[in-house]
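Q: I'm a student working through a structural biology exercise. My instructor gave each of us a protein and asked us to get a predicted structure, then write a short paragraph describing it. Mine is Family 20 glycosylhydrolase. I'm not confident about reading structure output yet, so if you can add a plain explanation after the tokens, that would really help. Here is the sequence I was given:
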Amino acid sequence: MLNISLCLAQIIEEELPVRGFTISAPRPSELGKFTDFVEKYLSKTNVNTLFLMVNYKYQFESHPELAETSSLSQNDVKKIVTTCKNYGITIVPLINLLGHQSWKQDNIKSLLKVYPQFEENPGDKLQDKDFYCRSYCPLHPEVHAIVFDLVDELIKVFEAKAIHVGMDEVFVLGEDSCSRCKGKNKAKLFADEVTKIYNHLESKGVNMYMWGDRLLDGKTTGLGKWSASHNDTHPAIDLISKNIIICDWQYKTAPPTPAYFAMKGFKVISCSFEVPEVAIQQLDNVLSLRKLNKVIIKNRLLGVMHTYWSTFDSFIDCYENSNCNSETIKGAVETFKTMYENDK
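A: Happy to help. First, here is the predicted structure for Family 20 glycosylhydrolase. I'll explain a few features afterward.
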């Protein structure tokens, strides 16, 4: 493994096309802190792409009923966009489509709370103490008209040329308890939903990012059911457009999955979280693949992304004051610093 200083130097030398950071959108009350973070810290790193997890935390004009409490206004978003523009940072808004329409059993997010008829019926899975998150039914005849309205608004207000549509950890799909999806091939259901979203974005000239876990065979690779699929969605990798950019999150280990996606024809970003050593190995892997392969493969290895999966206020408090509420948060902030701090 390359040492940290050499890896970071190589980020600059290699000029990876994407050097990303994913974090939740701030609450309106945190807007000043967030723009200060961009100005004081993020602008001093080599981060050039900010993936901002918005989901339903925006005051949608098309569907105001779906905006969560403490949602950003149009003026709030414009302040974020202007600040990022000033420092050459591209914003890619993120909204979870298909899966992640709840958190655990009871914390149901806006879409299914307002439109419960859209839910893919989880059936007996709901009785499982480890039940994780709900999905909307991809075959419901009315769901896309609404979610595409939300997507279009986010693209417009963020002046975005690309959007991240999530699609990770889809554990509820093609269930026998769903009258529309029962008995259908899960890989095709997943691929058809990806394609429907891609076609909508492609018609508007907007690039599409998505997580890659549902496209990996968790059993064959040993990656498990979280960072890969145990519910037979993985053959969808051969059924979707190669123009989709895959965000390959592997948080505990650094398997050769970026190479797999690149060999399949996709542009790919390797994503880290809470283990600095894993993030550095992932960076090393991407740099090595770019250096030692022909141009056609090199150009598919777009770069790296650090992800943070708690609130912005918890990140900045840990980052500035070392007030880290958990070992996970501490590890995630340390990983960010390892990847990006003092690069310039």
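A: Here are two points you could use in your paragraph. The domain at 4-340 is CATH 3.20.20.80 (TIM Barrel). The chain has a mean pLDDT of 94. It's a good idea to check both against the output above yourself.
Q: Great, thank you!
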